[in-house]
Fold each of these.
Amino acid sequence: MCKGKNFFYGLLSGVLLSGAMAIVPLKSVFAVEMVGTVAKNPTEIPPPITRSCPTKVTVDLVIKEVMAELAPGKQFWFWGFAEKKDDVVGPCTVPGPMIRVMEGDTVVINLTNDSNNVEPHNIDLHAVIGPGGGAAVTNIEPGETKTLQFKAMRTGAYIYHCAGEGMPWEHVAYGMYGLIMVEPRGGLKKAYRELTNHKGTVEKEFKEFYIGQGEWYIKPGVEHHPDIEGYSLDEDKAMSEHPDYFTFNGHTKALNDPSIFGNTMMVNQGDMVRIFFVNGGPNIGSNFHIIGQIFDKFYPGHYRSAIRNEETAYIPPGSAAVFEFEALVPGQYLLVDHALFRVVKGASGFLHVNKAKKWPHHIYSPEATGTGH
Ligand SMILES: [Cu+2]
């Protein structure tokens, strides 16, 4: 199945058998890190671009293979991206760390395959123009680091993902994807519109969130780790596109359970909201909708070609987009994939709009609570 890992695995087992003249359980060779969750906090977003001059941006990414909960009671063998800052490696998350650069920037990606891993990996960023989107020069075995440098040529939201072993489907199905935002020179619009009050003109800042959708095909057993009870990729289910779960941000409950991040997407009445959305797939497109909201703008590509006043937006697997809207009416709003049986399988989350002033009866009356769904 995986040429690289079988070779690596076989090499190690041979050394153990011939060197020690004893059968050493291979499970002792590879330790897998047990983490509680890979769920991504939707507010973990790099600061917006405020400059106009291109610069060099360096991003250190570390690939980890970990055991974490995918759905209640289901431990899954995830592969994912973490960011290293000031020599500290952050958590491995799904989606991976959001990367934010500007059109014209020179971007340096230092990609490390953690030495505890068993798989070869690489990175393909759809913001890159060149062979493999970077995958052609970033193939790394566990313990290796390689560097990719590219120029961010086109503004837009793009997915990045692993394409290791020439089998991106497998690596994406294990959770290896994230979003890179290439902002226009000067940055994305900081305010949707200007308002005036008695002190003069004020800008309404966007409250920004980061969501990654993916679907999961699982079977009992963890390759290379026979001592661990858990689940890994079921390739037959993946081939026939019959997923067990869908997630927003790496766990079926990530954005709908207050004990994870279910209360994290919170804004005030009148706030502007911007959502960076990536769909890893690997197979299935998202039909993203927020029940009770209309997207003022939705731009899968250049912000100037935004689609306006859209309600359900299709984000293909292997793609990303930006959504903007004004939170005019207080309440609890359900985020869904509007292929609605997927909600039952985990594709849901909440946006909370706090009442910050008088209820806007001219927009919605009477005053309401809950989602009605
Ligand atoms: Cu990979």
Amino acid sequence: MTNRQVILAARPVGVPQESDFALVESPLPELGPDEVLVRAQWLSLDPYMRGRMSEARSYAKPTGIGEVMPGQVVGEVVESGDRRYVPGDLVVGQLGWQEHAVARGSALRKIDPRLAPAPAWLHVVGMTGLTAYFGLFDVCRPKPGDTVVVSAAAGAVGQVVGQLAKAAGCRTVGLAGGPEKVADLTGPYGYDVGIDYKADDVNAALKEACPAGIDIYFDNVGGALSETIFRRLAIGARVAICGQISQYNLAEPELAPRNLGFLIVFRARLEGFLVTDYSHRFEEGLTRLAGLLRDGRLQYREDVTDGLDHAPRAFIGLLNGENRGKALVRL
Ligand SMILES: NC(=O)c1ccc[n+]([C@@H]2O[C@H](COP(=O)([O-])OP(=O)(O)OC[C@H]3O[C@@H](n4cnc5c(N)ncnc54)[C@H](OP(=O)(O)O)[C@@H]3O)[C@@H](O)[C@H]2O)c1
């Protein structure tokens, strides 16, 4: 049986090109003891993958040239050497950009499609939902009445942050690029105010939307946009540095934010975090998120691309802001 995989063909300079990826066919490895053969159904596309394509120092080892691109997958068990799994089980795991994968049973987790649809385990009740949950509640510690500002607010993480903050009694202001995404912010994601950072005067819009300042800033983008947002913090503000997507394709980081002096003025706290730091509490987060989803209190939008061959194009689109909702590939 042959497998189809997307490998890293070259290290990108700047924005990745389709030629940085290659679609290859290879034989499937034999199943060893305790191993499971999974047929992928859904592949998650995430900004962190850009970091893995680079050799710059990070929290995870870079993907080697010729190695399968990393990625989380939901798939179906085809064959199992691990007694915990039987053919037909749906599982989630870090299986990479490929149609089939052999993995140790301990590296997989069973999912229950009666609790949430299969692809949702890659986002709203998966990694991006958990990022929103722990980043908001543990890093930012919202109080009712707080004003919460979120950048990349219409994306996979941002759409959940806004809804969790609103449910916690906060006033929510989201920033996104373009009128369609801004309509999603104040529509399904329930933000009180949506700002189109590409078209609006962000400083003036924030001044109007946050007259008493920003108590919480959930930062997904960094750079000059964050510099503008720092100007409008409130005293005692908490800033979660979740992502810096505006910087991922730059050969040299932007020289912003330059106004860290405002952190003194506002006695603000900035804290970076990684969702994986909370792996011991994932069950707690997933139970909360699945409960909100079941009760119809968590809306989401998926941006689905069909076929592994189109994954590189869809990934480049994600980095360029073309995804409207959580970026997924259906295999
Ligand atoms: N710390 C963690 O553990 C953790 C875990 C998951 C994700 N993250 C980070 O969280 C952030 C959001 O991830 P996601 O999966 O939810 O992705 P996403 O928001 O669904 O997609 C990325 C979005 O970023 C926006 N963007 C791209 N370039 C930008 C720029 N130069 N300036 C402003 N916005 C830009 C685009 O939306 P617009 O059209 O609105 O610009 C794009 O659609 C990323 O930075 C990611 O690295 C961190």
